[in-house]
Write a structure and sequence with these properties.
mainly alpha; two-stranded antiparallel ribbon; 27 helices; binds guanosine-5'-triphosphate; binds magnesium ion; P-loop_NTPase; membrane; transmembrane helix; Fe2_transport_prot_B_C
């Protein structure tokens, strides 16, 4: 049999789904985390019946009326797939709003079981809910649950109730008598009646103590952490601390040990192959695969520490405050209040981030968010950031922090430009982000989240990154006649001849050599490839312990092997971060934008943005540090002027559209 989990956003559906199926889908301490449906079978120890039960986790919805697309996923699923039973997860701390949806669900004629979740929070607040009364008033079973607890959490009872009600008839507590959903007035009137009905139930069953001490303390904390101006420097300090721990202190410490093991594998493989193996095969295996993949995987400890810390921040409720602070700016530049959620999710990976834009109803806002979300530095970009921070800036924490805030700044500028170009009125959205309560973050949840990211990282490294590195190594070893490239003639290799024309375009940015161009190109397949390819083209296997490396390569450190000044290195880093994301993320952009023009416009914008930012960084930086402009200033300036000019032209055209609309 099939059961559907539905309920308001952030009520704990995915937590409950994970608890009853043993899966590890992403849980976030805010609304709108799940945007797709997820399926799994209920664990045997909870399901005492002999029927197999499949549970489906759905995106949160506030009501059944077609408001946003994720609500329609929920509505369509419930209507089309005809689950045998619906579990309605109700946030016990927010009863009246949740029950609005419950009464709508019950009208569908499918048996409903209510899981009164987050009951632990109510106990803390000394709010009590009379379950027997509630169950009687609604006409369906109600079970208290605590989805975050591993035992005595009410889940076994919940499942047994589910089995019990299957096929039974329930009478809906409230009957709207078939409202016409096309008629806004009728819907409004019916909603009002429903609210009155629900509030009647709530006042009967709930005994709530008025604002507790705890609540006032929370409000006081929010006045500072979510303050419209103070919130930003506080966030900057928090991010700086996160980067300092993960990229400067604890992360590199762990990475050093880890890289030692990778070096061990390298040495072992080298020894195991012996003399008989052909040097080409040997270098493919050693430099291309173990070296290239190892260089990427070497950053795993840094990434794990970072994600662990971010998960703690999310879990304790702080990230939701950051979202509120940013939200103000985003609304001003014509993005939706909901745009912040995709962007925060995008710091993990741009793909689910872009997918999360589905919850934005306004088409322009949704497309703009999908186009701008990839500017947030994602997990795959972290090794690139860590590499450059380590090699050129002595592991400085400001590098990563600056990249985050640059990403945010670019998003704000980008959003302004898009509003201007589309010539649409900047509709202020009134979406209000709900603030979850502060709580002590769970180490267990953060650990689980960290390991699931690590697993994904390792899988990616051992498949796509490995293949790319092998291909890069082969393309570097051979020329077009498929002869081995002689030493000193590296420029004739397949790789060099493909990358060289692109390198010319990059001269004004400070890194016009084929090796760096090749790494940036492979970065479009997956951003980790930038690190892998640099390792292969410069035969560097260890990016973590750069002192040791200085000995191996005979005095030259990584920075001079790459031949970049610090300014050019920063420019290269930004180019890799702020040009289009990997192909997979572009695919996600394509499916959420549903429009060719927007997709190509978005990609063009991302290229232009990356180019302009890198150009300015290199040229201005070089001017400041050396007193003269960098190479290729004039052609670069012309290219940038053309790009900027074109955008200004489009913005002017957008303005005219607005004026015409105003006249009409
Ligand atoms: N204290 C407490 N917290 C809970 C409980 N169940 C879930 N949570 C927390 O509530 C938050 C939201 O959980 P999710 O499972 O992501 O909620 P969701 O309903 O799937 O949310 P969307 O997918 O955004 O609609 C997380 O921070 C959970 O840890 C519970 O029983 N008690
Ligand atoms: Mg969810």
């Amino acid at each position: 049999m099939k059961i559907a989990l539905t309920g308001n956003p952030n009520s704990g559906k995915t937590t409950l789904f994970n608890a009853i199926t043993g899966k590890i889908e992403h849980v976030g301490n805010w609304a709108g985390v799940t945007v797709d449906k997820k399926e799994g079978n209920i664990k045997k120890n909870l399901n005492k019946s002999d029927i197999e039960i499949t549970a489906v986790d759905l995106p949160g919805a506030y009501s059944m009326s077609p408001f946003t697309s994720e609500e329609s996923i929920t509505r369509d699923f419930v209507k089309n797939e005809n689950p045998d039973v619906i579990i309605n997860i109700v946030d016990a701390t927010n009863l009246s709003r949740s029950l609005f949806f419950t009464t709508q669900l019950m009208e569908l004629g499918i048996p409903v079981v209510v899981a009164l979740n987050k009951s632990d929070l109510n106990e803390k607040k000394k709010t009590s809910i009379n379950v027997t009364e509630l169950s009687k008033a609604l006409g369906c079973p109600v079970v208290k649950t605590i989805a975050t607890k591993s035992s005595s959490n009410g889940l076994e009872e919940l499942i047994s109730k589910v089995v019990e009600v299957k096929g039974k008839n329930q009478t809906a507590a409230y009957d709207s008598k078939g409202v016409d959903f096309e008629n806004a007035e009728a819907v409004k009137a019916s909603d009002k009646n429903r609210y009155d009905f629900v509030n009647g139930i709530v006042s009967k069953v709930e005994d709530r103590k008025v604002i507790s001490n705890r609540q006032t303390k929370q409000d006081a904390a929010d006045r500072i952490l979510a303050h419209k101006w103070l919130g930003i420097p506080i966030f900057a300090v928090v991010m700086w601390a996160v980067f300092s721990i993960s990229q400067t202190h604890l992360g590199p410490l762990l990475a050093d040990i880890f890289v030692g093991w990778i070096d061990g594998i390298y040495a072992w493989a080298e020894g195991a192959m012996g003399e008989g193996v052909s040097p080409i095969l040997k270098s493919l295996l050693l430099d291309g695969i173990i070296g290239g993949v190892g260089a990427v995987v070497g950053f795993l400890p840094l990434i794990m520490v970072l994600f662990f810390l971010l998960a703690l921040l999310e879990d304790c409720g702080y990230m939701a405050r950051v979202a509120v602070v940013m939200d103000r700016f985003f609304k001003r530049v014509g993005l939706s209040g909901k745009s912040i959620i995709p962007m925060v999710i995008g710091t993990g990976c741009a793909i689910p981030g872009v997918m999360a834009t589905r919850t934005i109803k306004n088409e322009r806002q949704r497309r703009t968010t999908a186009m701008l979300t990839p500017f947030m530095p994602c997990g795959a970009k972290l090794p690139v950031i860590a590499l450059f921070a380590g090699v050129f800036f002595d592991d400085a924490s400001w590098v990563g922090t600056t990249m985050y805030f640059m990403g945010i700044a670019i998003i704000i500028i980008g959003a302004l430009i898009v509003v201007k170009i589309t010539g649409e009125k900047n509709k202020r959205s009134y979406f209000i982000m709900e603030l979850p309560e502060y709580r002590f973050p769970s180490i267990k949840r953060a650990t689980i989240s960290m390991f699931s990211r690590a697993k994904a990282f390792i899988i990616k490294a051992s498949t796509i990154i490995l293949l790319c590195n092998a291909a890069v190594q082969i393309m570097q070893t051979f020329n077009w006649q498929f002869q081995v490239v002689a030493e000193g003639a590296e420029g004739t290799s397949i790789l060099a001849s493909i990358a060289s024309p692109f390198a010319i375009l990059l001269i004004p940015l400070g890194f016009g050599v084929w090796q760096l161009a090749a790494a940036a190109i492979t970065g479009f397949i997956a951003k980790e490839n930038v690190v892998g390819t640099l390792a292969v083209v410069y035969s560097i296997t260890n990016f973590i312990d750069t002192e040791e490396l200085a000995l191996v390569s005979g005095g030259g450190d990584v920075a001079s092997v790459m031949g970049l000044t610090s300014v050019a290195a920063l420019s290269y880093l930004m180019f890799n971060l702020f040009t289009p994301p990997c192909f997979a993320a572009i695919g996600a952009m394509n499916s959420e934008m549903e429009d060719r023009k927007w997709l190509w416009g978005g990609i063009g914008f991302q290229f232009g943005m990356g180019y302009v930012v890198a150009f300015m960084t290199y040229q201005i930086g070089t001017l400041i540090t050396t007193g003269s402009l960098g190479t290729g200033f004039i052609p670069g300036f012309i290219a940038v002027a053309v790009m900027v000019g074109y955008v200004v032209f489009l913005m002017k055209k957008g303005d005219e559209k607005v004026n015409q609309k105003n006249l009409a």
